[in-house]
Amino acid sequence: MSVLQMSLREVSLALTDREISSVELMDAVLDRAEAVGTTLNAFLHIDRSAACAAARVADADRFAGRIKGPLHGVPMAHKDMFFRAGVRSSCGSAIPMPLADRTATVLSRLDAAGAIQFGVLNMAEFAVGGSGHNKTFGHCRNPWNTERISGGSSSGSAASVAARANFAALGSDTGGSIRTPASVCGVTGLRPSFGRVSRAGVMGLSPTLDTVGPLARTAYDCAMVMNAIAGIDADDPTTAAASAADFLHGIDDSIRGLRVGVPTNYYSDAVDPAIRHILDESLRELQELNCVVTPIELPDVKAIDAAAAIVFATEGAALHAAQLRAHGEMYTDQVVARLERGFVIPAPTYLNAVRYRAVAAKEFMQRVFSQVDVIHIPVLPIPTPTITETDVGGGDKIDDMLGKLVGLTRPISYLGFPALSVPAGFTKDGMPVGMQLVGRPNAEATLLRIGHSFQGATDWHKRAPNIP
Q1: 397-422 pLDDT, tens per residue?
Q2: By three-state DSSP, how is residue 378 classified?
Q3: Span 8-462 CATH architecture
Q4: Active site includes 268?
Q5: Among this protein's residues, is 154 annotated catalytic?
Q6: Whole-model pTM?
Q7: Which helix (DSSP H) or strand (DSSP E) does residue 56 occupy?
């Protein structure tokens, strides 16, 4: 097996057994990243010299017995919104950003775990947008079909992992920005519970919705990254006491008897038949693994999504107000169309939307999670659209597009629940489709265990795109 076809877990074991060195691994990844660079536009910058030097140090440390952990010497690249001291992150924008005065906590933790960052990845402008469009640096292309969207806003994160040019990447998820690209690119992506992972040193968009999480080949790989990045951080007061956990603990345990809830309302009529078929097949596989599938009725998710839209627009507008005044002409139309709505939302409307979160989450806990352990829904209700189909401006067109791209993910973000996108099949035209597993707060380990069991019984996550 080529090292590029290996999962993060397999690469970690190969390094531990000294079947490959970090230098050899880095060379292979850099060559691959450069080979697919023009086709996919997933990478914004690669620092070959620094990466190779870091790999040599990692090998020397390993041979001297100074091993930092299972990620020691593993190459990774991340979305270009995680700050590193002395480096200028683009945040996907044409507006010149200042040099960072600190390193993001999650990057510092990956550094401490021995991972080596070799580049930064394309993303939607200021992480606004589920399509992954970026008119400044060029759209990131889907490795399975370059005419289709790579998903957003963590477009380069998903595309690079799918293209076998990256073993794992950090992304952010405000309304679906990890799960959507993971689904359409055929990789695994975890949006952790709100407060699980520090956002200090990370570009913000909506402070009460933003989360940071991993995209990788497998659920096991995501758990490995979570073990490195999760935990309480004094620089992010939203990090919770429950943040510290071993996400690999029990991941190999049976999922027999776990209750999987399938909603009978809200989204069912809007799901394309091709997506429904794939999701039904994934449910049958979970039943083969001895999960108990249970019909459930969700609370008023339309009201939840409406509240989420209010919170996103208001907080996004507040964060960008000064910059919009100074550099408004450098924002693209889609981003302006979404942010400017926040300027006309009355304060009481925003406050009511924020307060409603606790009510809605409590209702979910009482009505849904009293009956089931996880909820099983699509990530997207439609097959992956083309870049042209989603290249819209403001008004009704953007509302329609957003409804399709974030309607099944944004409500989960608003509630603060964890959610995992797992490759579940392919459409007839060869595009991957993910299933979304939603859990109780801080139940990432359960989601990862189900995802790991599912991937032990299927091979969707092992399939790789044929990139010209």
Answers
A1: 777 877 889 999 999 999 999 999 99
A2: strand
A3: Alpha-Beta Complex (3.90)
A4: no
A5: no
A6: 0.98
A7: helix 48-63
